[in-house]
Write a structure and sequence with these properties.
This protein is α+β, with helices and mostly antiparallel strands and 430 residues long. It folds into two domains: 76-295, Sulfite Oxidase, Chain A, domain 2 (Alpha-Beta Complex); 305-427, Immunoglobulin-like. The chain is 17% helix and 28% strand. It has helices at 3-38, 42-45, 49-52, 139-142, 172-176, 189-196, 225-228, 395-402, and strands spanning 76-77, 88-91, 110-111, 124-129, 135-138, 148-155, 179-188, 208-213, 221-224, 233-238, 241-242, 252-254, 267-273, 288-289, 295-296, 305-310, 322-331, 337-343, 351-352, 354-355, 365-373, 378-386, 415-418, 424-427. The strands form six sheets. A five-stranded mixed β-sheet has the order 5-4-13-8-9. The longest helix has 36 residues, at 3-38. It starts with a helix and ends with a strand. The model is unreliable at 1-26 (pLDDT under 50). The chain binds ligand MTE and molybdenum atom. The ligand Nc1nc2c(c(=O)[nH]1)N[C@H]1C(S)=C(S)[C@@H](COP(=O)(O)O)O[C@H]1N2 binds next to strand 3.
Length: 430
């Protein structure tokens, strides 16, 4: 480092050191008190096993798994929700993760007829219907089209659905864990549709694609052509590696910002049609009955939502009063998150949380609020704002519009009651 550099950095470095010493003071005081009471800490004063021998060589684990001490960071099922695990759902352990990328190995799964096991070589994707040339692509064919990389969240429309009638499931994993966020690599659906040719479809304004998976359920969904030609991806990699079987290996559809049900896994067929198919998954399911008995349908977009992941029922405060980090996730199917407010008193006063980085369109945002906890009970909530100006509603506001019969699209503000003991509980206050 040159003298000049040193001169430039010294003032800010000094400021940082002063600042961190002040902030660390309270934390260290608590730790020092403990150490004094208990005498020398053998973890510091004695040579440990791991320093007296050798560790594992390379190749001990050709494909690494999390260390055994993290074995509670796993997907979890709520057994009474569904009759069996074949047509069921489990939940991402969002209370135990940080950052925004969800590792595939603990990203929630939702299957209608089980996760199927298909070799890449056996993959075929047909594009037919109102196209100039019906085509069938193999996996190797897909790899030859120009590729894109994008990070998007997938939220099941049923996420938080069990909370409509009142606070029910005790944990962020269970109330909000039907979500994951991955970096996808694939080919734009537009490119494949143009390869098949869309002149046969005529005016595209009122056309649709009907998308099916290769599993027994097929999970068929109709998608308006406008969205199909906009940002939909035919994806074959997630977080840099092949899709896991449970997430649709070898190829799934990525439908940014729209309900998870439309992200067809084990992709098999895309038909260009002049009307929506009105399949099971878009009539009897994934519609919401309103108070007057009519049903909302085509509720594709996931509205802005957020949740505090820690502290939360599965992630209590264990260190007593003093400096602590409140953190959570926010997302919007309509674009980027622009801000998150956090309240500690059930919505009487709100503070602006810090976004870990500027919001990205249709991807999870991580927020933090660094507080000095006085040890008294809190009613912790978070409230997301997105780039359209939309503000996440309270449960009462949502019920006013939607009534009590809904399951899907519950994006209301969540409340955790944090007690003096540091334990947290799912409660409903507004
Ligand atoms: N072929 C197929 N695609 C599917 C499903 C399915 O059962 N079969 N489930 C859908 C639902 S309801 C959701 S929420 C997402 C879940 O994706 P994941 O299992 O990767 O989390 O996949 C969707 N795509
Ligand atoms: Mo879903």
């Amino acid at each position: 480092m040159s003298d000049k550099d040193d001169t430039v950095t010294t003032p800010s470095r000094r400021a940082f050191l002063q600042g961190s010493a002040a902030a660390g003071g309270a934390l260290m005081a608590a730790g020092a008190a403990r150490a004094q009471g208990q005498g020398p800490d053998p973890l510091i004063t004695e040579v440990q096993d791991w320093a007296s021998g050798l560790g594992d060589g390379v190749d001990a684990t050709p494909y690494g798994l999390p260390i055994e001490y993290e074995d509670d960071v796993v997907r979890r099922n709520v057994e009474w929700l569904t009759a069996d695990t074949i047509s069921s759902i489990n939940f991402t352990p969002i209370h135990a993760l940080d950052g925004t990328i969800t590792p595939q190995g603990c990203a929630f799964e939702r299957h209608h007829s089980g996760a199927i096991n298909m070799r890449k070589e056996d993959f075929r994707l047909m594009i037919n219907g109102l196209v100039d040339r019906p085509l069938v692509f193999s996996y190797a064919d897909l790899e030859r089209f120009p590729r894109e990389n994008h990070t998007y969240f997938l939220e099941c429309a049923a996420n938080t659905g069990m909370e409509w009638a009142g606070a029910q499931l005790n944990g962020a994993q269970f109330t909000h864990g039907m979500i994951h966020n991955m970096e996808y690599t694939g080919v734009s659906l537009r490119v494949l549709l143009e390869e098949a040719g869309l002149s046969a479809a005529g005016d595209l304004a009122d056309k649709w694609v009907y998308v099916e998976g290769a599993d027994a359920s097929s999970n068929g969904r109709s998608i308006p052509m406008e969205k199909a030609l906009d940002d939909v991806i035919v994806a074959f990699k997630a977080n840099g590696e092949a899709l896991r079987m449970e997430h649709g290996y070898p190829v799934r559809l990525v439908v940014p910002g729209w309900e998870g049900n439309m992200w067809v896994k084990w992709l098999r067929r895309i038909e260009v049609t002049d009307q929506a198919i009105e399949s099971r998954e878009e009539t009897s399911k994934y519609t919401d009955t309103l108070a007057d008995g009519t049903s909302r349908k085509w509720t594709w977009v996931m509205d802005a939502k957020s949740v505090v992941t820690s502290p939360s029922p599965q992630s209590p405060i264990t260190h007593g009063p003093g400096p602590m980090v409140i953190t959570g996730l926010a997302w919007s199917g309509r674009g980027a998150i622009t801000g998150v407010d956090v309240t500690l008193d059930g919505g009487v006063t709100w503070q602006k949380a810090r976004l870990a980085k500027p919001g990205e369109k249709m991807a999870l945002s991580r927020f933090y609020l660094d507080i000095d906890w006085d040890g008294s009970e809190m009613l912790v909530q978070s409230r997301a704002h997105d780039e359209t100006g939309y503000v996440q509603p309270t449960k009462a506001q949502l019920r006013e519009v939607r009534g009590l019969n809904s399951i899907y699209h519950n994006n209301c503000i969540q409340t955790w009651h944090v007690k003096e003991s540091g334990e947290a509980e799912n409660v409903e206050i507004s």
